[in-house]
Amino acid sequence: MTALTAQFDVPLGVDSPRTSRKAVLAVLSAWGYVDDDWTADMSVVVSELVTNAVQHGAGFVVIGLEAYGEQVVVSVADGSAVVPRRREPDGRGGRGLVLVEALTRRWHVEEHEGGKRVRAELRPYPDTDREHP
Ligand SMILES: Nc1ncnc2c1ncn2[C@@H]1O[C@H](COP(=O)(O)OP(=O)(O)OP(=O)(O)O)[C@@H](O)[C@H]1O
Ligand SMILES: [Mg+2]
Predict the structure, then answer these.
(1) What's the pLDDT at 127?
(2) What atom in ligand 1 is closest to the CA of residue 94?
(3) Is the Cβ atom of 19 under 6 angstroms away from ligand 1?
(4) Which of 11, 33, 35, 66 could be 73's S-S partner, Cβ–Cβ 3.0 to 4.6 Å?
């Protein structure tokens, strides 16, 4: 099966998570990924990863999408080589990666152009939707 791929830059700032969600959902919708529950999960994952890239990362944020039928991977790259790690949630946070883990099949971090890229594979897209490619 041919993969559908997209990659785009996100302007850095307080609006980065919202901008990212809009861009990701627009691309996925154009590809036929429109299921409400599934796209809600995707929105949360994108929000948490982009918020982390802005708050804890450095330099830039680049989003990638790869779709192989029901299997869809979103990636968020930033310019810091520091590797994100789940931590014990407390009053100051620590819930973002817990959410990402709960809403994805798997996630991991890889080196990317001097920084890193967090890749997260969503649960399989439900095949009940006839618009699905
Ligand atoms: N892009 C990143 N670059 C560097 N460190 C990161 C990145 N993302 C996460 N981290 C590290 O991993 C930790 C856990 O991230 P997580 O999103 O779970 O919690 P948080 O961002 O601290 O709080 P919350 O997401 O609940 O507001 C962060 O505290 C940070 O130290
Ligand atoms: Mg976070």
Answers:
(1) 76
(2) 19
(3) no
(4) 66
Residue 36 — pLDDT band, cuts 50, 70, 90?
very high
In a domain, 102, yes or no: yes
What ligand 1 atom has the least distance to the C-alpha of 86? 14
Q: How confident is the model at residue 2 (pLDDT cuts 50, 70, 90)?
A: confident
Q: Which atom of ligand 1 is nearest to the CA of 78?
A: 1
* Domain that includes residue 79, residue range: 4-122
8 A C-beta contact, residue 94 and residue 84? no
Per-residue model confidence (pLDDT) at position 105: 98
* Cα 96 to middle of ligand 1, angstroms: 7
Number of domains in the chain: 1
Quickly state the pLDDT bin for 121 (edges 50, 70, 90): very high
Q: Is residue 128 part of a domain?
A: no
Q: How much distance in Å is there from the Cα of 121 to the middle of ligand 1? A: 18
